[in-house]
Every structure is written in structure tokens, then in C-alpha cells.
Amino acid sequence: MDSPTTETTPPPPTLSGPFVGAIDEGTTSARFIIFRAGTDEIVCFHQIEVESIFQKEGWCEQDPMAIVNTVNECIAGACKKLVAVGGKVEEIVTIGITNQRESTVVWDRNSGQPLVNAIIWLDNRTTSTVEELLETIPNNARNINYLRPLCGLPLSPYFSGVKLRWLRDNVPVVSQAMEKGTAMFGTIDTWLMYNLTGGKDCGVHKTDVTNASRTMLMNIETLQWDANLLKFFGLPKTILPEICSSSEFYGSIAQGVLQGIGITSVLGDQQAALVGQQCLAKGQAKATYGTGCFLLYNTGPSIVHSTHGLLTTVGYQLGRKAVPFYALEGSVSIAGAAFNWLRDNMNLIQNSGQIETMASTVDNSLDVYFVPAFNGLYAPYWNQDARGVICGLSEETTSEHIVRATLEAVCFQVRDILDSMHKDCKIPLAKLMVDGGMTVNNLFLQLQSDLVGIQVLRAKIAETTALGAAMAAYKAVENRYQMEAPLSKSGPREAIKPSISATDRNLRYQKWKMAIDRSLNWETSTLPQGEREAFDGA
Ligand SMILES: Nc1ncnc2c1ncn2[C@@H]1O[C@H](COP(=O)(O)OP(=O)(O)O)[C@@H](O)[C@H]1O
Ligand SMILES: O=P(O)(O)OC[C@H](O)CO
């Protein structure tokens, strides 16, 4: 008789914690990433695209409930993967939130339901609101920098206060709720926090200093809502969340797989990337290239007011009693988004993997310059009437030249910002830390280094934004954690150095400036009298 065989099942894999989770709710996608605590090691993650709704030209909205549902799906998906690789969800010690900034949600205090779709940061329906607000500035000054001493920002459709004012003026359900005291406002961090911690039943209504610094309603010195700013925008204080530091206990998750786990950090995504890149000392800077591109320069505890078109913003405040660190920011609204446009509107590419291949088949852009000012130009121009232009087309121009010119457009916009930073801070940057979706593209990073004449250092991991939120969250629960300590054991960052001459670089930059001139004020430019009559009569 055969002896019975004993079937041995392999023991399940084990992976010990502690772990830290980070929600990164970006403009194009949401993700939940689980890190090994205190390191940049990603254990697993789950990512889902979020749909934008374009109802009218220049408008961009998202469904607030879809944002919450997507984040919950990402959390569930990543936790499932954690278990699959042998980890335990109970070993997630805390989580952090990082988010697309300025995007504005208004909801009802009683039902917890949104009153309107979220107005996304790059929506420019509020151009006329800015015009109306400019009219109210004393002495007919019409100065976009009027509020800068208070909030560090110029008047622009970009910021939440302007979007809220538009909602008050144009959506009766919002203005009525504001009058009755039943409206609640939040940027995406606040909306997520409220829902994750229990919604209408017990959800906390809080934001952090970095997100609040993008509303135009927070005083950049006191870090509190400012009565004069609220009066200027005609908004009631009752709608506003409590402002907290970027690293402290906010509340606990009310239900789902992470029920009971605390949320201990909140940072706007660009500030989170500053932390994730460990730009934690004055004089360090990073650029994140995603939908838009955002360059932040750490100015330490001092507030530097830009006179060259940059924003003054809170970089981070890592604890209730911690000293806040500030940053100068150069914001570019269209970076990777220009490639989405080449794909969806122009059919020039099918996917982002093709960008580098196509652009590499030509030696240069054949003197083509593309200013993708689809919704105006942000820093340093702040010209809401600028529109996109492609200059220098010839019979020889091919799709490849246009794809390459699109990469160069992002690089030139970063040069615009670095020139402003140099003027504001006097010290030129020696190197630039880079991260974000576009930085997988090697040719792009070489062009960036060439066109600015600076060494570019690629981040070790692509998810520096989520990492920054995870670091700030862990700091709130683990006293011994040193954020400045080396995160990665995998050697130094990859450095990309300039390979063209200064003369070549400057000539190309002059051409870029000529293209910028053609793009500025396009929307409000009038035809000369004779031509206008001919046009009207046609
Ligand atoms: N290889 C590439 N070359 C250039 N751009 C790219 C490449 N891969 C992705 N992108 C761009 O990067 C953006 C996505 O980056 P990501 O950091 O995920 O954005 P976000 O945080 O804004 O959601 C998209 O706009 C996409 O067009
Ligand atoms: O979605 P991203 O990464 O392009 O970031 C959006 C910014 O926070 C807008 O200010």
C-alpha cells in the first residue's frame, strides 16, 4: 500500500510594519500609497483616474462624491495588495493626505452633500469675477497685487477665494446656504477629511496652513483667516474650516478597512513634494512636473514678498508649535496637460510613452515655439487673457517638432520662473530637484538642464508628493523620527548636466520671449479700427 502523502502548503509571506499610508488626490488621478514607516520604500499602492467635467469653454469641474468614492476605492485596493504581500492592515500606524490645491468644494452642513461640483484650480470661469473685484480696489488702482501684503498672492482665477465669490454671485443654492449659515467650504483635503472622519454625523472640518495659504483668505503672517480679506471677497467666516498645522492629529477614520486609524498630516501636493524631496532648509528648491508644473523655493521662516511675479506661500508647519516655513512659488498651469491636449484634441500622440520616442527622432524643434497658455499664463506673467500660440511653423515642420517644442515649452516656463526667483532672492540656484509624472522622460530632463543651464537631480522615487505626506504623518506619531535623515539606501540621485552653450541657450530663450509676447493679452486684443469694421461686416 502506498504511504499517504502529506500536502504541504507554503506559509503565507510575511512583511512586518510599521507602515504609513498616504492619500494623494491629484488633478488627474487619486492614489493611496503604503510606505514602510520612516523610509521611501513603497510597499504597495492603488491608483485610479478621476474624471474632469468640461461643461463650457474654460470651465473644469469634478464630482466631489466621485473624488471621495475614488479615494475609498484606492484605500481598499492598496490594503488588499498589502495583505497579498504579507503585510497587516493593523500595522498601518497613521495616514496623511495630500491634494490638488485651490480646487473648491461647497457642501450642506445638514446633509453633508455637495451643493455644486468642485471647481478645479485651472478653471478660469472667474475671469470676470477678477475684473469686478479689481474695480473695487480703492483709487481706481486696479492692481492685481493689492492683496499681496496680506495673503502673498495676486488676484487671479486660480485661487479659492475668487472661486467662492463666483459661487456666491452665480449659484443661488450656495448664496442662500451662506446666508443661512448652512454652507461649508473646503479645499479637497478638507472635503476628504470631513468624509473620512464621518461626514454629516461627526466629520471634522479642518484644513492645514499650506492649503489655507492658497485661498486668498488666510493672513500669511498670523496663519489665521483674515477679516479684511473676507470682507474684500464678501464671504462669511461661518463657511470656513479650522486651520491646523501640517503635522498633527486631525481625526480618525470612521469606517471601512482603515476604521479607527488616525489622520495626522495634511499638505497641498506641491508643498508635500517639497517635504518629500527633503528640501527642508532655506535655499533648497524643487520642481514637480504633473498636470501643471510648480517650483517651490524654501525661504525658511522668513516671508519673502516677490516683486517678480512669484507667489508667497506656506511651505509647511510640522507641528502645532513648530515654526512655519515659507516658500516662493512659481506656478505653471499647463505642463503635462499640454500632452493630454496633443493626444485628445490634436491626435498627435496616442500615449505618453510615445513622447520621448517622437521628440528624439529630431535634433531640435526646427525653431518652433509653443506657448500652451490655454487658460491664461500664471507665474510670472499672471495674464488671464493670454492664449496658446504655436510660432515658427514652416513647410518642414512635422509632428515630431511640435512634440519636442511642447517639451521645451515646459522647460522655458521653468526658466521664466527661475529668473524671477533669482531676482527675488539674489542667489542663483545651483541645482534643481525634480519629480512628477513628466520626469520619467529622459530627453525632457536633458532639455530642462540645457535650456536653464542648471544641474537637474531626478528624485529617487516618482511618488515624492505622497512621500512628503507620509513623512509629515509619521512625524506626528513617532517622536524619534528625523525627517532629514537619509531615506533611501539606493545611492545618490541621478544628475543631469547642461550640454549646450550659454549663447545657444540665451538665443533660444529670446525667441521664447517673442512667442510669449504674441500670446499675452490675446483674448482682449482688439483689431485695428478698419480691420474690425471689415470683420464685423463679413
Ligand atoms: N513620458 C512622459 N513625457 C512627458 N509627459 C508625461 C510623460 N508621462 C506622463 N506625462 C505627463 O505627466 C502628467 C501626469 O503626471 P502626474 O504627476 O501623475 O500628474 P498629477 O499629479 O497632476 O495628477 C500627465 O499630464 C502626462 O501628460
Ligand atoms: O495635480 P497637480 O499635481 O498638477 O497639482 C495641482 C496643483 O496643486 C494646483 O495648484
TrEMBL record:
InterPro entries xref list: ATPase_NBD, Carb_kinase_FGGY, Carb_kinase_FGGY_CS, FGGY_C, FGGY_N, GK1-3_metazoan-type, Glycerol_kin
One cellular-component annotation, GO: mitochondrion
GO terms, biological process: glycerol catabolic process; glycerol-3-phosphate biosynthetic process; triglyceride metabolic process
Domain Carbohydrate kinase FGGY C-terminal stretches: 286-476
UniProt pathway annotation: Polyol metabolism; glycerol degradation via glycerol kinase pathway; sn-glycerol 3-phosphate from glycerol: step 1/1
Top-level class of the enzyme under EC nomenclature: transferase
Keywords carried by this UniProt record: ATP-binding, Glycerol metabolism, Kinase, Nucleotide-binding, Transferase
GO molecular function: ATP binding; glycerol kinase activity
Sequence segments annotated as region (Disordered): 1-20
EC number(s) on file: 2.7.1.30
Domain Carbohydrate kinase FGGY N-terminal span(s) in chain numbering: 21-276
UniProt cross-references to PANTHER family, sorted A to Z: GLYCEROL KINASE, SUGAR KINASE
Record family assignment: Belongs to the FGGY kinase family.
Protein name, UniProt field: glycerol kinase
Organism name: Drosophila sechellia
